[in-house]
Amino acid sequence: MTTAMTAASYLLTKSLTGDMQLQKLLYYSQAWHLAWTGRPLFDDTIEAWQKGPVVRCVWIDNKRGHIQPDKDGTGLSAYETDVINAVYETYGRHGGAALSGFTHVESPWIEAREGLDANAASRRPISRKTILKCMTRKSIHGDKLTPKPPAPQRDASDAQRFTAAADRQGAKWAETFAELRLR
After folding, report:
1. Which of 58, 59, 78, 111 is the most buried (most CB within 10 A)?
2. Which residues contact 148 (CB under 8 A, 6 or more apart)?
3. Distances (CA, A) of 23 to 16, 93, 95
């Protein structure tokens, strides 16, 4: 898992139109990572602001000029970089206002803003559970703004677990195969 600041540093290497677009791309990176892996991309809270989802700490640091673009994606795994790139390929051509409009018709932002006036400020968190449900639904139904999921990245521990499981299965079947040979 990375941080929203690290993801934002990587996104800032892309051709962005402003802070609103950065915030919405962060949101969609988190959302699609959740849908594809069941785990968050970052642990930072996403709040339901008037103009859409915002990671407050990124907004503050970006306004102060404290976030430096990082084209190498230092602090991101290859898979996390692939997720952010897939999100950018799908959503990056849309400006901040358009992306904000997309979020305003999705259940995560709507539920978090429930009962608030349209112009009200808010620090209410957007539920990861609701994001997961919403994006999984979009992924299944093939919404036109569904990025293509990156190929899963496997590491050495995945290979070791797979090999151990195969060895266990082989041992279980060895007796059966021996019996069949005798018949």
Report:
1. 58
2. 86, 89, 90
3. 11, 14, 11
Nearest of 36, 28, 25, 39 to residue 139 by alpha carbon: 36
Q: Are 15 and 51 in contact (CB under 8 A)?
A: no
pLDDT digits (tens, 9 = 90+) for 30-82: 999 999 999 999 999 999 999 999 999 999 999 999 999 999 999 999 999 99
The rounded distance, in Å, linking the Cα atoms of 31 and 58 is: 17
Kindly state whether residues 52 and 94 are assigned to the same domain.
yes
- Pairing, β 47-49 against β 52-54: antiparallel
d(CA 7, CA 82): 11
Query: What pLDDT does residue 156 have?
Result: 57
Q: Are residues 160 and 123 in the same domain?
A: no
Structural domain boundaries, residue 79 = 4-152
Contact 33, 89 (CB under 8 A): no
Q: How many CB atoms lie within 10 A of CB 17?
A: 14
Statement to judge: residues 130 and 85 lie in one domain:
yes
* 69-127 confidence digits (pLDDT tens): 999 999 999 999 999 999 999 999 999 999 999 999 999 999 999 999 999 999 999 99
Residue 116 pLDDT: 96
The pLDDT of residue 176 is 78
